[in-house]
Design brief:
Length: about 300
């Protein structure tokens, strides 16, 4: 019996018991991406592997440009970004961004899952979810948020520190090997260094700690990727982004996931429409990732209570 036969047979055996995590990875042909996640804490999966047609990303861009226009109050185009000068009110600032609101050249469009079925379908993409579950754990993975990063030309970006952070930073140290959160950034436009690409420190998830400055900036590298790629990364991976130095826009969708013991950014249980959750390509998975049937948090007595005998 050849070694290959043994491997195949043992895979088959484990598949018949239950669809183990490694079996799912093997069935989808994702071993090389798992290897990159283990070594670098990040991988880039191209469209031919995750299977989402480019036309879907075109439709998402069109939707998000229109949504940007209605939220901000001026036209947005991929070539020019906002067609008017825009600013934030001083009480509206997000942490990690410039103190001077005129230097901020990005914002988030939140709660995408409620806005169009195509965003719900993307959030349950089998390849993305398999890689995320590899890092967090199959039964314990939940959604944290589904947001779009809308960014345009600006010298400052996140500033000299590139906004480097680890997404699971709010969890106290020491961190273990299991990801407490894990993220996907779908590139809806080309990611180039000059165009404001994602920045990260390869292997930093293995430091199991928050970034240290200024050394982290020197270790950071750009993730240059074609439109339609998805960047998948561990919650402990140090990352941020470079400023966009050229005209036009960089748009991404961050479908962010969490271990069920970590609280979510979006409150799916209390605010997500159950009918919308059922209206997607994989309603069972969407439902499970929303945590609708989770035991916690409860909002009424959930455990049985003994009663005196009559
Ligand atoms: O591309 C960016 O601006 C950073 C994205 C990010 O930090 C995230 O999705 O967690
Ligand atoms: Fe992040």
């Amino acid at each position: 019996m050849s070694k290959q036969t043994t491997i195949t047979e043992s895979r088959g055996a484990s598949h018949s018991r239950h669809s183990s995590r490694s079996q799912v990875i093997a069935d989808l042909g994702l071993e090389q991406y798992v290897m990159q996640l283990e070594v670098d804490g990040l991988c880039v999966v191209p469209p031919e592997v995750h299977g989402v047609p480019i036309a879907v990303f075109d439709e998402m861009v069109e939707f998000l440009l229109k949504r940007s226009a209605s939220l901000v109050g001026c036209t947005f185009s991929l070539e020019r970004g906002p067609h008017a000068e825009v600013t934030f009110k001083s009480d509206q600032q997000r942490s990690g961004l410039a103190e001077d609101p005129s230097k901020i050249t990005q914002f988030l469009i939140q709660q995408l899952g409620s806005q169009h079925r195509m965003f719900r379908d993307l959030a349950v993409n089998p390849v993305a979810v398999a890689l995320i579950k590899h890092m967090i754990g199959s039964k314990v993975t939940r959604f944290s948020s589904n947001n779009s990063f809308v960014k345009w030309q600006g010298e400052f970006g996140y500033g000299p520190n590139l906004g480097l952070h680890a997404d699971q930073s709010a969890v106290p140290l020491p961190w273990g090997r299991t990801a407490l959160t894990a993220n996907t950034n779908w590139c809806l436009t080309d990611y180039t260094l000059e165009g404001g690409a994602f920045a990260y420190v390869p292997g930093s998830h293995r430091f199991a700690s928050r970034p240290t400055f200024p050394s982290a900036v020197a270790q950071a590298v750009p993730v240059e990727a074609a439109k339609g790629s998805v960047i998948v990364f561990h919650g402990a991976t140090w990352h941020g982004a470079y400023p966009r130095k050229i005209p036009g826009m960089r748009i991404s969708i961050a479908n962010y996931y969490r271990h069920m013991m970590v609280s979510s950014q979006e409150d799916y249980r209390n605010s997500f429409d159950r009918d919308l959750a059922k209206d997607c390509v994989n309603p069972e998975l969407f439902w499970a990732l929303c945590g609708f049937d989770d035991e916690f948090p409860y909002c009424e007595q959930s455990q049985p209570v003994p009663r005196i005998l009559d």
